[in-house]
Amino acid sequence: MSPEPKSEQNPAERIAQLREAVRRHQYRYYVLDDPEIGDQEFDALFHELRALEEAHPDLQRADSPTVRVGGQVAQRFEKVAHPVPMLSLANAFDEADLRAWRERIRRLLGEDDLAALAYIVEPKFDGLTVVLHYEDGRFVLGATRGDGQVGENITANLRTVGQLPLRIPADATADLPPPARLAVRGEAYVDKADFAAFNARQEAAGDRTYANPRNFAAGSLRQLDSAISAQRPLKIWAYQILLLEGEAHPPATQGESLAYLQAYGFPVSPLVTRFTDEEFEALVARVMQFGAVRHDLPYEVDGLVIKVDSLAQQAALGFTGKDPRWAVAYKYAGEEAVTKLLDIVVNVGRTGAITPQAVLEPVTIGGVTVSNATLHNEDYVRDLDIRIGDQVLVIRAGEVIPKVLRPLVDLRDGSETPWTMPADCPVCGQPLVRPEGEAATYCVNNACPAQLVRAVEYFVSRSAMDVEGFGIRQAELFVEKGYIRDLADIYSLPWDEILELEGYKAKRVENLRAGVEASKDRPVWRLLTGLGVRFVGEVVAQLIMADYHGLDKLMAADAEGLSAIDGIGPRIAESVTEYFSLAPNRALVQEFAAAGVRIADEAPVAPAGPAALPFAGKTFVVTGTLPTLSRDDAKAFIQQGGGKVTGSVSGKTDYLVVGENPGSKLIKAEQLGVPVLTEEELVRLGAPGSSPAG
Ligand code: IVH
Questions:
Q1: N or C end of the chain: which has fewer CB within 10 A?
Q2: Fold match between 11-60 and 619-685?
Q3: Domain spans of the chain, in order of start
Q4: In a 3-state reduction of DSSP, which class is residue 303?
């Protein structure tokens, strides 16, 4: 696409070019779930096209992407016609747009109707639109938005979404008669934290990651195999009634519609507010304030939707083209920005991995000044042909490190220079190595000071030894001064010399020293974490130490013994044994011991009599929605009974506890012959005096 209109271009040409670009980007966004450009960039193209068409009505066409709802239907799912067209929303980007929208509504409604005019303000959830159909209280069909007229049948996948009521009212005691027919519009999404955790797991396993929570949600819902969807942490918000039949008291407003949906068991946002027309200033203030807090929400919200509350007024206002006049989406300035790539430098990580880093002309993205962004690895820079001097598109999604998405090739003037990975480590000067088949390049010099700094930083961090007052600055300083040559040197720092350093007054040094001293007595999994063995983070270290209780025993372990631990695969097991097979690493452990650092936990207390805990030695998996216990409650109940809870069903699982919507775990359990319990059976089994039969 060409973002800049060429001035000599005639309108017909430009319109044709824009239509082509808009169609292509809509296809990438809606059908492939793989957009090339961000919302803001897309909106700019779309608005330019609409403005040109308005200025040249003779060039308007019935098939322009401005007159139909965006998107196409992917061929692999069955098609479903929507009960009403699935409209989209016109956008407002500032206060003036909002006020203009209001004025138009006031004008169209006329004096008589103004007294009753009020607005509902809802979050604009950034997920995937879904249409949910219920007949006589049963969920019978679920579809994607598709092209607005026809969507894709994803019923099987939606059934796996825990929050989606399969029967309404979801609460059987609610004494509400189900309507004969109901169709609901909602948004399927995943929480930011669930997205990050999923990507981290995928990355560790070398599998495909998703660019953002929206793509993750979309990708998860469009799996042809619903067992995969079932394992994805999908959630849902319901926000519109599309069709309602056989209801004696149908809602008359959007506010009542939301209350209705909530009463029947749909997740409805608690962040909805209502304003009368007279309170419009307060509405504007709400919109502005929300922009600052939306990032703190656990899920992504890219704006607010403001809707006329009365459904009768909505009907009177109608729509233009594909947008209702009665609603508008207020969109906050995006999380993307374009800036100049000044340079590419490389960072040396704790494992010696070399990451190219973009040095950017500082730019504000979502209220934060960004001057660095990651470029992942050598191939990323090469495949995207990112050159020094390029204008680049930078994204900052939630809490994660900003990243360069791509160069804007059309803006090149020829002065840009390609980049290549340096041959030598910028810190120690030793040659860099890229193992065959790996995307990452490494500095393999164990004595590289950059690695040591990172290793120390990690060792003292909260995830590992949690040394108070010790951070990256101290790591850099003490390595530079030569006080720290290996991790154990942290326990023999020359405190008298440190007292002489600038900024290290007696009090500060005393605190630092106390922090170091206190860390000697941490549970041994923290020391194991701090060693920075590949694939051994805090969770894995705890799993290992729950079995081995000490580094002495662990050093003697073989890979087979380690992989017998639930949750430890062969890759981790090998990494651990490889680490301790190296003499310097074994010597390091002895140094810690000599310095008084605890390398083994106290012997575990021998279990009391056999009948003491009902679930002792048993491993459980919990799946689906239980009738009364939450997932966490069920877990706590099992653990209090001496049992263990794991995430996936395997040969080592003793029981699968199932609720509604169990998904693939139940199938797996049945295949493996793992006994299945209901919540009631679980509770009975855990009651004092009973002991599991298995
Ligand atoms: S109302 C006719 N309300 O934003 C009005 N849409 O183009 C229909 N969205 O993909 C939409 N949160 O699915 C409405 N609270 C909300 C929404 C919302 C997210 C989505 C919608 C559509 C896009 C707007």
A1: C
A2: no
A3: 11-60, 118-331, 336-411, 449-519, 524-594, 619-685
A4: strand
